[in-house]
Amino acid sequence: MSLLTVDIDEAGYKLQEAVISHVAFKLERSSLTGMIGANGAGKSTTIKAILQELPFVEGHVVREEGTSYSYIPERPIYYDELTLWEHFEFVAAVEQLGEGHLLYAKSLLKKFRLADRIHEFPATFSKGMQQKGMIALALFTKPDLLIIDEPFMGLDPGSTKMLLDMLDEEKEKGTGILMCTHILDTAQRVCDSFIVIEQGTVKACGRLNEVLAKCGAEDGSLYSCIDTVDDGDE
Ligand SMILES: Nc1ncnc2c1ncn2[C@@H]1O[C@H](COP(=O)(O)OP(=O)(O)OP(=O)(O)O)[C@@H](O)[C@H]1O
């Protein structure tokens, strides 16, 4: 059985008003899958459907039994009244995680150079610092499945490299990763497979060569798979 099986007929924000339709794919352990598509194509909506955060989803989203997941949202979300470290303690308490996980959290925060800021409120952090805190919060739970929406936003080059190394390490541990991104050069280099979303449905899905062939991308670039040109027909 796959780590995650997605087979959505229709889903949206209002009953019977589909924003995505016929979105089907599988995610395996030890793999990094890039979900790409133009603005408004339906990537975040697909993630929300997987996370069961939409009022209307017809179809199936099935996670392998007993597996855990973490989600890194496009925009960092923190509780105003908790310091960064209190977020870790809160998640550890809710998910019944032990001292080993909190030690791992400290090592992640050190890597991201946040160790000396853990007793501050994340609202006072820069955008990139907030994003790094979110990444550490997602990783310290040691999830089987990691879902990330636009992870590189706001990260400096060193942190971007560190995140890519961390994703590699996660894969080696067996984690299955689904990552939405517009940074296509990086996606093309690091992802094992791709899902191209266009107008709320899957345009192509599979390994790089399969996706490029399906999209007719003769220049061998994922950029050619994304229809961003407004043809002015409206
Ligand atoms: N909360 C919402 N309520 C109603 N419609 C929404 C909501 N969020 C998104 N949509 C609509 O769903 C469609 C798909 O949006 P979605 O956010 O999934 O796109 P995306 O591919 O993630 O785009 P981007 O690259 O800009 O983040 C858009 O037409 C958008 O207007």
Automatic annotation (TrEMBL):
It holds the Pfam family ABC_tran. GO terms for molecular function: ATP binding; ATP hydrolysis activity. Gene3D superfamilies: P-loop containing nucleotide triphosphate hydrolases. Residues 3-224 form the ABC transporter domain. InterPro entries: AAA+_ATPase, ABC_transporter-like_ATP-bd, ABC_Transporter_VariousFunc, P-loop_NTPase. Keywords: ATP-binding, Nucleotide-binding, Transport. This is ABC transporter ATP-binding protein. It comes from Siminovitchia fortis. The lineage of its organism: Bacteria, Bacillati, Bacillota, Bacilli, Bacillales.
